[in-house]
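As a next step, the fold was encoded as tokens, giving this record:
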Amino acid sequence: MNASATAPDRFVCPFCGLLCDDLPFPGTSAHLQAACPKAAEGWSAIRAGYAGEGARVDGVAVDMEVALRAAADALARARRPLIGGLGGDVQMMRAALALADRCGARIVHAHQAAAQRNLFALQGRGGVATTLAEARNRADLVVVVGGDVTRRFPRILERLFVPAPVFVEAAARRLVLLGADRLEHAPAGVPVERIDCGGLDLFDAVATLRACCDGRLAERAAPAGFASLAERMKSSRYGLLLWAAGDLDFPGADLLVEELQQLLLGLNRETRWAALPLAGSAGDLTANAVAAWQTGFALPLAFAGGEVAYDPFPDYRDADLLLWLAVLPGLTFPEAARGVPTIAVAAPGLEPEGARIVMPAAVPGVHAAGHLVRSDGVVTLYAPRQDAAPLPAAAQVLTRILAAVEAQPCR
């Protein structure tokens, strides 16, 4: 996999939701690991699997047209098809929705359980969110809630703290951890303070902090550090709550997010605070954004009889066919789907083991151009093609499958 001779030194990195556009392209630089370990991990995942393999049916190499016809026939025969994974770009998701509509399929992103932690809170009580640019230029106090957000987004604090802010003194900015012991990737020179939760779990810690901010808990009744943090939050000119939904992997996490949003609501009566919930890796924000644009609903969706419905609590145990879409790394194939006949449209090396039909497709931003939605949800970035690998875009593969399905005789 050699970079084309005309490939620029920088690329839009598709390997996490930050979509950084200032990293060296892996094909032209050996320094990607030092710049961003997440980008290096993603590059390794697609490069390790790249061996020039073509389409396969039942483990046998076949022409792409043969695989397309086999996939179309399987979809046409399926009674309860499921389209999952969805690790890809805007164009792939548009094509997946068109195919789901035609086949009467259910469609869900592999990370949907994490995405719904933020979505359920937003649906229930609303929320206040900001953008990367506004947070970088205005926030004087950043409170990281939950786990170490830099494990999933190694450059997030670099993006927030390293550029000179426009509306606040750089030396006045502070970073506080609530629920995390340390940060794996913290920019040099940024003061980091850890709040000792005193044995409280994250639910009780956030509730205690909110009570302190609202004046409902006396200073002497709160664990050490909570009252002080509450005073600093109330006196901050622009504060930011930062969390990654993927780190909140426990029952009732959506209720914790709702509590965080209520904390913000109370603070905004006197000053200015916002949330920056981090997501977007493996195309989860992209998939949900396209679903909302085209149907009015977030994922998961169920298509049937020419209609579409929001399916917030799906049960896929009756699925008789899975179309797995994975042209971005980072997806985990569900254990419950191990015995389900599977069609995979995936980047080389990202197809699930045991897939009956495999059709290789391009990684957006590497093998093909594509559009991806950034973690803050306000920017859709164009990721140009960087590499000359002769792979079709996933959207092209799905469009050809759809055409083959429509050409099937009525059953």
Notes: Confidence is low (pLDDT under 50) at residues 1-7. The CA atoms of residues 115 and 245 lie 7 Å apart. The first strand starts at residue 10 and ends at 11. DSSP finds twelve helices and 18 strands in the chain.
